[in-house]
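Title: Comparing notes on inverse folding

I've been comparing how different people in this forum approach sequence design from structure. To keep things fair, I'm posting one structure and asking everyone to reply with a full sequence. Here's the target:
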């Protein structure tokens, strides 16, 4: 009887070991991220050339991969490679004509290339398709400004604010638009609030200085410009110090 119990126990233990091994064998090794995932990560870190490389790598194997085409288009836009960005977004639109991201990207590329009419047609259709895209309203505001329609531009920027919050780009464009339309005090208010929220924005401070100068408040304008230059000098100094510290650590590590 003892021998039988011992045999049963051994068999039970063996069964547990086998099932444990089987469970471990089922576990798959962690998957390597795809080139598109790596591209997105690089893009969010601001490494646009690296992102472009990752998306391009993915498209070698899958030339009709829409997400890779969209990522490539965005990376190229950030690098001001506008014609290639337009090609990437156009191809994504050919594959998925109703893809809102493809339409938005193509419109922004067209706008940057100066093709206002075609860009506006796409943006107008897209704002009907998805009315909550602040970049679309912001771009429509830019086009209205370029075409000398400040009232329309202000309305578009307000819609952009509605859907994107008080975004730095929108506030800057609205402030500049009001200034160009002659609404200097209103422009100053918009730009002051924006610089309080984005104190390191050089373009906001430069436009605020311009709005003050146009009101004849030259001393205040000069102070704003000096503040802008001081921030730039601080940024340069921080970069130089960072580079020096990096070089020092490198030298210490290799000389020790």
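Reply #1:
Here's my take.
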């Amino acid at each position: 009887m003892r021998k039988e119990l011992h045999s049963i126990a051994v068999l039970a233990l063996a069964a547990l070991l086998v099932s444990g091994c089987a469970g471990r064998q089922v576990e798959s090794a962690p998957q390597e991220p795809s080139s598109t995932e790596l591209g997105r990560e690089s893009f969010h870190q601001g490494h646009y050339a690296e992102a472009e490389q990752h998306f391009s790598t993915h498209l070698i194997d899958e030339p009709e991969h829409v997400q890779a085409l969209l990522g490539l288009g965005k990376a190229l836009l950030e690098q001001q490679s506008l014609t290639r960005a337009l090609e990437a977004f156009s191809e994504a639109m050919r594959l998925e004509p109703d893809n809102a991201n493809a339409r938005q990207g193509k419109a922004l590329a067209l706008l940057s290339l100066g093709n206002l009419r075609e860009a506006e047609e796409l943006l107008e259709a897209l704002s009907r398709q998805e009315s909550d895209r602040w970049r679309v309203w912001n771009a429509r505001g830019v086009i209205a400004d370029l075409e000398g329609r400040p009232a329309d531009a202000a309305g578009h920027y307000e819609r952009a604010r509605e859907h994107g919050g008080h975004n730095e780009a929108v506030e800057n464009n609205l402030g500049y638009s009001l200034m160009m339309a002659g609404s200097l005090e209103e422009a100053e208010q918009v730009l002051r609030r924006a610089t309080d929220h984005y104190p390191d924005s050089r373009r906001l401070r430069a436009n605020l200085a311009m709005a003050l100068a146009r009101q004849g408040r030259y001393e205040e304008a000069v102070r704003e410009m000096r503040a802008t230059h001081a921030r730039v000098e601080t940024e340069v100094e921080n970069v130089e110090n960072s580079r020096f510290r990096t070089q020092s650590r490198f030298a210490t590590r290799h000389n020790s």
